[in-house]
Amino acid sequence: MVARELQAHADRRMADRTTPEWLDPEADWTESIAHLRRYSNYLSPKVGFFSADTWSTFTIWIRNPLLVQATVIFAIALALLLPRPLFEGFQQERRWDEAADPRLEVVA
């Protein structure tokens, strides 16, 4: 029942078709292209080198890679600096053990 209704709807649509399909060679694209040209600059609405939208877009595009690079540099610095306090802590613990038990002293 549903299949017959869908087929009838598709047949009526094909019979009522007055505009060509998108892939037909006789399709008119001028209205679609004009629409795209009108609304395709949504990232920078006001065009021009000195407009606030252009400068805002430019600063956002520059800021984001700088933030990523700063995060990576801080992560690398942390990875390189973290072993030093751990090493100092282990050396301090070793000194406490040697002070508590003189037999654990290392003879150099």
Structure report:
- The chain has helices at residues 2-15, 30-39, 52-81, 83-100.
- The chain starts with a helix and ends in an 8-residue tail after the last helix.
- The chain has 108 residues and is mainly α.
- The model has no long low-confidence stretch (mean pLDDT 78).
- The protein has a domain at 48-103.
Please render the helix and strand layout as text.
Blueprint (H helix, E strand, L loop, with lengths): L1 H14 L14 H10 L12 H30 L1 H18 L8
Largest sheet: none
Low-confidence stretches: none
Question: What Rg do the Cα atoms give?
Answer: 36 Å
Global mean pLDDT? 78
Strand elements, count = 0
Portion in strands:
under 5%
Helix proportion range: 55-70%
Distance N terminus to C terminus? 96 Å
Element string (H = helix, E = strand): HHHH
Shape estimate: elongated
What structural class results from the helix and strand content? mainly alpha
